[in-house]
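B., you asked whether I could sanity-check this one before it goes into the benchmark set. Here's the sequence:
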Amino acid sequence: MSSPQTLLDVRDLRVAFAGREVVHGIHFQVNAGEKVALVGESGSGKTVTAMSLLRLVQNASLSGQAVFQGQDLLALPEPALRAIRGQNIAMIFQEPMTALNPLYTVGEQIAEVLTLKRGLSSVQAKEAAVALIAETGMTEPARRAQAFPHQLSGGQRQRAMIAMALACQPQLLLADEPTTALDVSLRGQILDLLSALQAKNGMAVLLITHDLNLVRRFADRVVIMENGHIVEQGPVREVFARPAHPYTQRLMDSQPVRKVREVSEVSEAGEVAPSGSLGGVRGDEKGGAPEVLMRSQALRVSYAVPKPGFRGWFGKNEFVAVQGADFVLPQGQTLGVIGESGSGKTTLALAALGLLPFQGQLQITGRAWGQGAASDLALRSTVQVVFQDPFSSLSPRLTVEEIVGEGLLVHAPEMSKAQRRQAVVQALREVGLDKGLSEQEQQALLLRYPHEFSGGQRQRLAIARALIIKPRVLVLDEPTSALDVTIQKQVLELLQQLQLAHGLSFLLITHDIAVIRAMAHHLLVMKDGEVLETGPIAQVLATPRHAYTRTLLAAES
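And here's what the prediction gave me:
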């Protein structure tokens, strides 16, 4: 049997910035028609490696070889390499909203590739662009071709990027985290689409990702990178079954683990039946069910939107983002809310935080939102939030001490500066940010800024900021989706520890079923603003009643 044809042969690739080497002499191959995954955490060098193949990294010093069909990409003159880009090797970038030009329709951008690379006329290019959009499975392709990027959903934008990348039927597709920003069901759709198109066109795919479930589902071979080195590579089944390197083993062991206090019986409405002491969770006077900290009945959130055409000058239509949501959140437990983008889950969270006007009833510890500024202020110390992206949610102009202690200025104005500093130090200790630091190092920590921390450390800062005023409910809006798998596991373990220690309740917004399995006691499934299914986590995951829930669970596997 002849060996597979090598399409790309990377030999001793080194990448350096200002004399500092970040990729250290790596070797790997991609065969014709093969799907290879390049895996590692942020900073491992995987994206720099992929972009260096087409010399797309600015101010980088490259050495070694990247031989593609007999030509060394790193040694080619720029005009020759420009001819290969898009024509023979195409790339799908991580964030389509920033990769697509906001001033042109997606059809125009795809047609431009066809005109420049394949020499089609403008009429031919427009027709071919619509056909390519249709090939990606996008509905109403002619209308979508006339849309600007901001008028498409995340999944539609990613499909448009795929259509553009495949316009010239390349032999090799570089896909840089093509599903990171997408919901779990959309991830599955994009993966299936890439697999179908790869098989149809016979192209090879180099997938850059940190998602191991995605690798298991998609790739033939896997290449593991750590700190600019390749530490392990081989067929996916073999590496996943018997990981040899400690770093690979750590990645494989990074799936969230369930470490929560279980409840014995839960009714259909989510009420906890009396079951004795729940170990640190305060019950009622009879020692039965824990206190309900948040309750919603017929919660409805709507927005005014312009009517189409000239009628928009004279009136508005109503868009209902959340329709009739009922739920309860007992003390010491987690209510998980899942659904695709646009399902209404984040709107539900914002209403729970008292940040959006709503109809229906929403109570915090038996008191309703919107009863007056003084009453609402007291409730805001009960409910706090941890946002999805820790970097954008922390002010870059404030120090750690100012960020974490800011809430005390509002909710505990009687505290002195020394008392606030002590409270900040205690909060940082509780989230594990001062572990092993001397007193002098602790003081220096208070004066640092968010950009001086890693993603996981910034999320710990955000949790400390929320905890310092001693809330009883934390709203967690995709708290780990921006983090690598190993850091994600650490943050989830921290949240679990805090819940067990303080009896905190979590309203957890996520599209990650693995996070739901690890954290939630009850589950609420949303689609198009409606609650389709709710119940105890074990019941919903084991025997989902609604077809949409089954679709979400199937997309995880």
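One thing to flag: Residues 184-201 form the longest helix (18 residues). Otherwise nothing jumped out at me.
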